[in-house]
Amino acid sequence: MNNSLGNTARLIGAGLRALLVLTVVCGIVYPLVVTGIAQAAFGDKANGSEVQADGKTVGSSLIGQSYNLPKKNPDDANEAAVPDLRWFQPRPSNGLAANSVNTQYNLLVSGATNLSGDNDKLIKQVTDAKAAVVKDNSTADHQVNPADVPADAVTSSGSGLDPDISPAYAELQVHRVAEKNHLDVARIDKLVADHTTGRTLGFIGEPRVNVLELNIALRELTQK
Question: What is the pTM of this model?
C-alpha cells in the first residue's frame, strides 16, 4: 500500500513539474521569443500592416474599407450607403454579414456570398453594380463602355474585405476622380500608375492597387 501511494505521489509530482515547465516554456518563453523576432524583423506586418496619414493610423493595408458619404440620418440602419465619388472606390462587399454575437461594437463579419453563378440574386447584384459603375464613372467628356467594366468592380472577394482593386478598375475611375476633384486626368492617371504593384516575385498573383494607399495619395494631392 505504501509503495502504491509513493508511486502515485511521484507520478503526480512529475506531472506537476512537467506542467510547470511546459507552461513556462510554451506559455511564456516561446510567445515572448516569437513576438520579439516578429517585432524586430517584421514590425510593420506584426502590428497589422497599419497605414499612417497625418501622424494617425487610418487603417490597414490588408483590410478594405468603404468611402461613403455621411448618412442623412445616422440612426437609420436601413438607409442605403451612397459612395463618395471624390475617392477611388473599392470592390463591393456583398458577402459581409452583420455582427450578431458581440453587439458592443459595430462590426461586420467577413465572408463570401456563396451564391452560384446562375443565382438570380447574384445576377441582379452584378447587373445593378455594373450599371452603377458605368453611370458613376461616366463624365462630361468620357463615357464608360460597359464592356470595359472589370469583374472586380461588380463582385466581392472571398473575404469581402479585399483592400486591392485591379489596375483596370482603378483606371476606369480616373476620369471621375479627376472631375470631382478638379484635377487633370493625367495627374490622376500617374497617381494610379505610381501605386500599382506588380505580381509578387514577378509571377505570383496579379497586378493590384491598394485603395487606401491610393486615396491617401489623392488626398495629399488635393491639399497641395
Answer: 0.79
